[in-house]
TrEMBL record:
UniProt-recorded name of the protein: Alkyl hydroperoxide reductase subunit AhpC (Peroxiredoxin)
Positions annotated as active site in the UniProt record: 45
InterPro entries linked: AhpC/TSA, Peroxiredoxin_AhpC-typ, Peroxiredoxin_C, PRX_1cys, Thioredoxin-like_sf, Thioredoxin_domain
Cellular component annotations (GO), alphabetically ordered: cytosol
Length: 211
């Protein structure tokens, strides 16, 4: 199965390091991040999950729940979490899915046979409160993800959903945003009271709306 942007994230029941879950129930009305890692007790994954744990307050501010997955079992997850906490100086509180039969990995296309026939790649999905997939990003096993970028995308998606804007290259919270082409400059000046700067008829900027 190939999941694309705008698709409904498939629901599933799974064992995790924190007990059984139903995925959609777990997400509730929150945003969600589901990310796979190749294996427990591996160095890059240890740093990734440790850093993700340290971002808990940032995800909480964005009303976002995080859940990880690998093809290892619950006992391995629980014991590995102790190593993550020790070496990364954190306290992992989000669940890690145990997917020993690879059922969920195959449902979400997390196994890429030309990379590995058994281990999951570093895929990550952002899922909105309507359970729609809004971001899909995949890294090779050798490269750790940039979770600061994940936060940036979350901020962009939540801003775009709240206001009729788009975000330009390298946008960070507080930067000017872009007026979408579907909105005329005349209408934009009514919609965005902070002003509109027209560089080209198709390239207009406005200060970030209040969130």
């Amino acid at each position: 199965m190939s999941i694309k942007l705008g698709d409904t994230a498939p629901d599933f029941h799974a064992e995790t390091s924190l007990g059984d879950i139903k995925f959609h129930e777990f997400l509730g009305n929150s945003w969600g991040i589901l990310f796979s890692h190749p294996a427990d007790y591996t160095p890059v994954c240890t740093t990734e999950l440790g850093y993700t744990s340290k971002l808990k307050s940032e995800f909480d501010k964005r009303e976002t729940k995080v859940i990880a997955l690998s093809v290892d079992g619950v006992e391995d997850h629980q014991n590995w979490i102790k190593d993550i906490n020790e070496t990364q100086h954190t306290d992992v509180q989000f669940p890690i899915i145990a997917d020993k039969d690879r059922r969920i990995s195959e449902l979400y296309d997390f196994i890429h046979p030309n990379a590995s026939v058994t281990a999951t790649v570093r895929s990550l999905l952002i899922i909105d409160p309507d359970k729609k997939v809004r971001l899909i990003i995949t890294y090779p096993a050798s490269t750790g993800r940039n979770f600061n970028e994940i936060l940036r995308v979350l901020d962009s998606l939540q801003l775009v959903d709240s206001h009729k804007v788009a975000t330009p290259v390298n946008w960070e919270t507080g930067d000017d945003v872009i007026v979408p082409p579907a909105i005329s400059t005349e209408d934009a000046r009514k919609i965005f009271p902070k002003g509109v700067t027209e560089v080209k008829p198709y390239l207009r900027y406005t200060p970030q709306p209040n969130t």
